[in-house]
């Protein structure tokens, strides 16, 4: 877009070269207005210049103003046609194009509602992997060790999140509808095939292919779609959408804890396939993007790893990914070894149910005090509860209270993952790619957490395994502490003022 004044009168003035020159050297954007779109932080620094520009324009004659308006109108139309990766464009009083977001309205909230049902299936199943672990340990695979069964859960978690590096880039290029349709198909087929499984290798094959493929495609799409509709209320929107994950993490374990004994494992899986189909159809109809796909590019954006802030966020994902998913996988086993009986399978359900508070509350809190600050509070709570787990032991009331608080803290971690990864981007065209590659790295921690945590328990008697549980708890507590420290460093790199919103 040209910023050269027209012959008949003055057009809007570009920002001072001293402000834009460094960014023009670092990026491919040579147009000052395009730089403002890509780096909205410039708008505040250039506000004084924009004010002077408006005053100068108002001092010109009427003919000059008309010619300038015609010139500006054609330029704005050209920029709108080219599309922008941050949002719709709106001309400000100073003539600068600024990205705008609906931040509400029927259409925007219907998108959130559609995303609710995709994460219900996608992320809800990822949070329910511990229910499968407990079911297989007491049913099909009673002769296998915790570490061996843990590979099933770990492989599903690894591929669910590891494929995100490809899903994020595919969304950027092709949009959400092909991904939602494919994810729904994979989940339906996966549960139908799971209903026929009776052997260890069969279960592992389904949990490592069809189920994680479908779950990944479903939960990644709404993260990017909702981000196109909200800016000021993005934390609230993500919080409301992520409560679908909490509901799914309650419903799926409840189904697995009760229905196999009544209707059989096969029909339980077929019922889950039906539920996934209905949720996928609903999401397909309601989710809608506002921006065109970006040009084809790499599945990875390695330049992001030059940023200290982004690296610290990725370290936080790795450490908390290990600790949190190890907890989800083995809390039911811990309850059984602690002698809680029929209450043991419901510990995971209680944890997932309480995460609603963390997901919704952290989203609202992030809008008020900043995403980093809200995440730090949740991280600190999670670390404290993990260490307290060492002292709780088999006290029923204390164990339930600890599970509830960890659920709240874990919900905060899950809810704030997408905005944390995206807000480190200096070029929002790569927001989906940066989110995907961060989850890809985290997936390796999830791959290791199940077998390694199970190996620390050993293969002895139930009492011997219970006495060895502290080893896994200490490992998870230390890693979560490292993750909390890394997010502090990321926040400090972004904003040095202690009480500032960040």
UniProtKB/TrEMBL annotation:
It is found in: Membrane. It is a multi-pass membrane protein. Residues 110-495 form the Major facilitator superfamily (MFS) profile domain. Its main location: membrane. The chain crosses the membrane at residues 108-129, 149-171, 178-201, 213-230, 237-259, 265-287, 308-331, 343-360, 372-392, 398-416, 437-457, 469-490. Residues 74-89 have a biased composition (Basic and acidic residues). It comes from Dioszegia hungarica. Belongs to the major facilitator superfamily. Monocarboxylate porter (TC 2.A.1.13) family. SUPFAM superfamilies: MFS general substrate transporter. Residues 1-26, 46-103 are annotated as: Disordered. This is Major facilitator superfamily domain-containing protein. Pfam families: MFS_1 (PF07690). It comes from the Eukaryota. Keywords: Membrane, Transmembrane, Transmembrane helix. One of its GO terms (molecular function) is transmembrane transporter activity. One of its GO terms (cellular component) is membrane.
């Amino acid at each position: 877009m040209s910023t050269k004044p027209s012959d008949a009168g003055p057009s809007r003035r570009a920002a001072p070269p001293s402000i834009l020159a460094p960014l023009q050297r670092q990026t491919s954007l040579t147009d000052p207005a395009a730089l403002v779109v890509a780096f909205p932080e410039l708008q505040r620094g250039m506000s004084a210049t924009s004010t002077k520009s408006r005053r100068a324009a108002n001092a010109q004659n009427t003919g000059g103003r008309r010619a300038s308006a015609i010139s500006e109108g054609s330029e704005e139309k050209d920029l709108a046609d080219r599309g922008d990766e941050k949002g719709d464009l709106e001309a400000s009083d100073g003539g600068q194009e600024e990205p705008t977001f609906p931040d509400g309205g029927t259409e925007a909230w219907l998108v959130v509602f559609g995303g609710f049902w995709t994460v219900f299936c996608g992320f809800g199943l990822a949070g329910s992997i511990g229910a499968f672990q407990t079911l297989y340990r007491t049913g099909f695979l009673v002769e296998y060790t915790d570490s061996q069964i843990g590979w099933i859960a770990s492989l599903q978690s690894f591929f669910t999140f590891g494929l995100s590096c490809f899903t994020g880039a595919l969304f950027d290029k092709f949009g959400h509808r092909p991904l939602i349709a494919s994810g729904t198909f994979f989940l339906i087929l996966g549960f139908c095939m799971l209903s026929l499984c009776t052997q260890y290798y069969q279960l592992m094959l389904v949990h490592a292919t069809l189920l994680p493929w479908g779950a990944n495609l479903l939960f990644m799409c709404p993260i990017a779609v909702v981000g196109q509709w909200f800016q000021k209320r993005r934390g609230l929107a993500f919080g409301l959408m992520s409560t679908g994950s909490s509901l799914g993490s309650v419903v799926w374990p409840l189904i697995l804890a009760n229905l196999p004994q009544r209707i059989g494992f096969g029909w339980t899986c077929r019922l889950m396939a039906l539920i996934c189909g209905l949720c996928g159809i609903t999401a397909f109809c309601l989710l809608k993007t506002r921006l065109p796909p970006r040009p084809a590019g790499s599945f990875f954006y390695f330049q992001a790893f030059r940023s200290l802030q982004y690296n610290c966020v990725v370290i936080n994902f790795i450490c908390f990914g290990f600790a949190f998913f190890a907890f989800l996988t083995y809390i039911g086993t811990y309850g059984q070894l602690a002698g809680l009986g029929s209450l043991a399978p419901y510990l995971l359900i209680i944890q997932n149910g309480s995460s609603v508070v963390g997901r919704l509350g952290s989203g609202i809190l992030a809008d008020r005090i900043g995403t980093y600050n809200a995440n730090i509070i949740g991280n600190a709570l999670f670390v404290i509860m993990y260490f307290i787990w060492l002292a709780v032991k088999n006290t029923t009331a204390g164990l339930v209270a600890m599970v509830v608080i960890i659920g709240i803290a874990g919900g905060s971690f899950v809810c704030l993952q997408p905005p944390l990864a995206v807000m480190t981007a200096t070029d929002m065209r790569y927001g989906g790619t940066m989110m995907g590659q961060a989850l890809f790295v985290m997936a390796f921690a999830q791959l290791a957490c199940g077998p390694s945590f199970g190996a620390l328990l050993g293969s002895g008697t139930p009492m011997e395994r219970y006495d060895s549980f502290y080893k896994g708890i200490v490992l998870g507590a230390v890693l979560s502490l490292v993750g909390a420290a890394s997010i502090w460093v990321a926040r400090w790199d972004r904003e040095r003022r202690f009480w500032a919103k960040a």
